Structure formats: C-alpha cells, structure tokens
C-alpha cells in the first residue's frame, strides 16, 4: 500500500525523482529511456490492433468484434500507463543504487495476448462470422 | 571550441540508438493515428468523424513535435535524462488515441 502511494506521488510530482540519490551514468538512463520507448511501441501496437479488429473483421458478430477491440484497446492503455510507472521506478532505483524492480507484467501481458490471439483464431475459424 | 577536453564519443552509440528508438516509436504512432483516422471515416464522412480525424491528426502532430525535440536534445555527446514531462507526453498521445477509439467504435 505504501509502495502504491509512493509511486502515485512520483507520477504527479515527477521532479522529485531528481531529489533522490545520485545521477547515474547517462548511458544507463538512455537504456532505461529505450526500454520505456519499447513499451510505448508495444502499447501503440496493441491500440492499433484494437482499431484493426474493428475495421478489418466487419463480418464478425457485433459483440465479438467490439469485445475483442475494446480488450485490445484496454490492454494497450494499461501498457502505456505501466511504461511510465516502470520508467520512473527504474530511474529511482538506479539513483538510489538499488536493484531494478522486478515485475510480473511481461508474463501477464504475453498470456493476455496469447489468449486474445487464440480467441480470434477460434472465432474466425468456426464460422461465427455470420451476423 | 578547443577549450577543455573534447567529449569522448560513446563507443556503444547510446545516444544514436536512443534517437532511433524515438524514430521507431514515431512510426508506430503514425500507424496508430492513420488507423484511428480510418476508423473515424468508416461508413462515410460525418461531422463527428471529421472532428475525430482532426483530433487524431493533432495528437500525431503533438507526438512528432515531442519526439523531434527529444531527438534534438539527444544529438549532443552527453544528453540529459529524459524528463518526466516528455515521457508523460508520449504516453498521453497513446492514451488519447485510445479514448478516440472507444468514443467512435461501433
């Protein structure tokens, strides 16, 4: 609970990151920035996938199409929020000389993407494409 | 120019790699924005659809401006750390595209 409050405070007053610890080697910060950007691209790809499901599967039953599309969009939004949170936490850990935070998010995300892909295969294969 | 030691080029090319990462992300944002615009015009142009197209164009322009500024800042030997404002700006663009999507999905 305390951890959540701390990270929320950092979200809204991010300048505090610079008050903590020492500035790490600039190359580490750049690596952290590239990781952040890779997560943003993942989020954008999920959001693009949400648009694509809605636009390129018009024969799908309405509920399936909207459901899959909204799921992908929600996962994309979550992924982009998490990208900032992780970037701030890594930057903080590097300044304080602590270990980098470990997280289950990549595992959860890959499971979710796998499940969505499987649902799409099933939906498209089994001719629930009739409206 | 000759005063002080010349900055050593980073053999790992970290600033260059980071600049390229911003470029890739700009491309991803372009694809997402184009899909958003296409979504808005589905089933013929309507006032709301055109408004959504204009909005996603604005979001895309904001992202390009943000990325351009950061790439310019990265073209020095020892670039400063990414500011939280820039990070939030990039994420806000992704979130805004999602909001449009939810608003015009049908």
From TrEMBL, chain A:
Listed Pfam families: DUF202 (PF02656)
Domain DUF202 per the UniProt entry, residue ranges: 27-89
Topology in membrane: Multi-pass membrane protein
GO CC, any one term: plasma membrane
Name of the protein described by the UniProt record: Putative membrane protein
Keywords associated with the record: Cell membrane, Membrane, Transmembrane, Transmembrane helix
Chief subcellular location: membrane
Transmembrane segments: 36-56, 62-84, 105-129
Compartments where located: Cell membrane
TrEMBL record, chain B:
Membrane-crossing segments per the record: 48-67, 87-105
Coarse class of the protein's main subcellular location: membrane
Domain DUF202, first and last residues per copy: 10-72
Alphabetized UniProt keyword annotations: Membrane, Transmembrane, Transmembrane helix
Membrane disposition: Multi-pass membrane protein
Protein's UniProt keywords contain Transmembrane helix: yes
Annotated compartments: Endomembrane system
Listed GO CC annotations: endomembrane system
Protein name per its UniProtKB record: DUF202 domain-containing protein
Species for this entry: Streptomyces indicus
């Amino acid at each position: 609970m305390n951890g959540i409050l701390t990270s929320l405070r950092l979200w809204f007053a991010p300048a505090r990151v610079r008050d903590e610890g020492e500035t790490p080697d600039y190359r580490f910060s750049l690596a952290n920035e590239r990781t952040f950007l890779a997560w943003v691209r993942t989020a954008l790809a999920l959001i693009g996938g949400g648009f694509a499901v809605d636009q390129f599967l018009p024969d799908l039953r309405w509920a399936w199409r909207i459901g899959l599309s909204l799921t992908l969009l929600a996962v994309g939004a979550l992924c982009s929020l998490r990208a900032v949170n992780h970037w701030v936490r890594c930057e903080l850990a590097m300044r304080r000389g602590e270990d980098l935070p470990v997280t289950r998010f990549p595992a959860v995300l890959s499971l979710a993407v796998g499940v969505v892909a499987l649902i799409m295969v099933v939906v498209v294969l089994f001719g629930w494409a009739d409206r | 120019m000759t005063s002080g030691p010349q900055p050593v080029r980073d053999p790992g090319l970290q600033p260059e790699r980071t600049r390229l990462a911003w470029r890739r992300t700009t491309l991803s944002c372009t694809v997402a924005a184009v899909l958003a615009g296409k979504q808005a015009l589905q089933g013929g142009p309507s006032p709301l659809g055109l408004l959504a197209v204009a909005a996603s164009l604005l979001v895309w322009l904001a992202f390009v401006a943000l990325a351009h500024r950061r790439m310019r800042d990265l073209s020095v030997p020892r670039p400063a750390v990414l500011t939280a404002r820039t990070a939030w700006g990039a994420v806000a663009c992704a979130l805004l595209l999602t909001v449009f999507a939810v608003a015009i999905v049908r």
